[in-house]
Amino acid sequence: MDQVDTKISKFLSYVLRHQPESIGLVLDSEGWADIGTLIKCAANHGKRLNYAIIEKIVDANDKKRFAISVDQKRIRAVQGHSTQKVDIRYQEKTPPEILYHGTATRFLDSIFKQGLVAGTRHYVHLSAEKSTAIKVGQRHGKVIILQIDIQLMHEQGFKFYQADNDVWLTKTVPVKYISVI
Ligand code: HQG
């Protein structure tokens, strides 16, 4: 993706996950927006998009952040939402025994007091790969990788979901399941 595409991708993340109302867009509870309406709303706010550009960004996206509906008419972000307008009914899934969470060292004190919390997003994001956790954590500062005892959490009744792009989601991770690696 070139710089222009990255800018459009960030714009799509913003309106499809966080602030649809900033361009007058309405998402349904599963996060879907009509693509024609998205193009019109974006144009009204000075962003020129068309179907081909949107399709290219969806296909090229490194993390498969977005999905287009089977009938090709709608688009949504597959995870990462903070807008309260959206509440995707993810299917519960049996998780692997261990998952990782990349964060920054400056958050550790608070994490070991409160556990991992979703903050503004709807879920805590976890990954099966350490390499992914490293990339996620680096966005926040000096990275540190936390290992989560998912097997125990699952046995003790915590629910796990997997978004279409393989990111694992759960509502919260109490301190007792977290260790630093
Ligand atoms: C931290 C990106 C203090 C948490 C990524 C994280 C991911 C706490 C930060 C997705 C805490 C929230 C999500 C506590 C958690 N005290 N800090 N009790 N509990 N934190 O960006 O997981 O590129 O909302 O460790 O790839 O970093 O947007 O979450 O550092 O999949 O598609 O609070 O976002 O995807 O930061 O990243 P974020 P995240 P996209």
Automatic annotation (TrEMBL):
Pfam families: PTS_2-RNA. Signal peptide: none annotated. Its EC number is 2.7.1.-. It is an enzyme of class 2 (transferase). Gene3D superfamilies: 3.20.170.30, RNA 2'-phosphotransferase, Tpt1/KptA family, N-terminal domain. InterPro entries: Ptrans_KptA/Tpt1 (IPR002745), RNA_2'-PTrans_C (IPR042081), RNA_2'-PTrans_KptA (IPR022928), RNA_2'-PTrans_N (IPR042080). Keywords: NAD, Transferase. GO terms for molecular function: transferase activity. The keyword Transferase applies. Removes the 2'-phosphate from RNA via an intermediate in which the phosphate is ADP-ribosylated by NAD followed by a presumed transesterification to release the RNA and generate ADP-ribose 1''-2''-cyclic phosphate (APPR>P). May function as an ADP-ribosylase. PANTHER family: PUTATIVE PHOSPHOTRANSFERASE (PTHR12684), TRNA 2'-PHOSPHOTRANSFERASE 1 (PTHR12684:SF2). Belongs to the KptA/TPT1 family. This is Probable RNA 2'-phosphotransferase. It comes from Xenorhabdus griffiniae.
